[in-house]
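Q: Got one fold?
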Amino acid sequence: MTTRLETSRTSVRHLGPYVGYRARYDYTLSGTDGLPIYLSDGVALSSFGAAGNDLELTFLGSHSLEVEVTGVDNGTFEVSMVARNTTSLPSLTRIPFIGYEPWYEPLSASVGDVSWGTGIGRPANQTIMWTEWIEP
């Protein structure tokens, strides 16, 4: 199974042979499209990352991944990656498919005054940045 992170690397190999190439990949569990991803995340967790999706992406949950080729050296691409995510108690307790319905958020947000942005489980923004070299 090709993982989401490997898919972004493959696109750089085939589509981004120049400095300045940019792409964005959204990893979302919402709607019916998110159900297979959720199941693959479960496989990743139960196998400690040996199968299913990338364990890093499984832990992070729904997020965006921005990819930019920042350098090329002898055909190898220097790539900057930025993953962005907002996490919260509702995000943790969200049930696939129905957890993204508008009526679900107030139910899960009622614990610890999360709906007001205070207390345990309040929303937190996460930004993870790294650079890697990708060979063709």
The mean pLDDT is 75. The chain has five helices and four strands. The longest strand covers residues 76-87. Residues 4-134 form one domain.
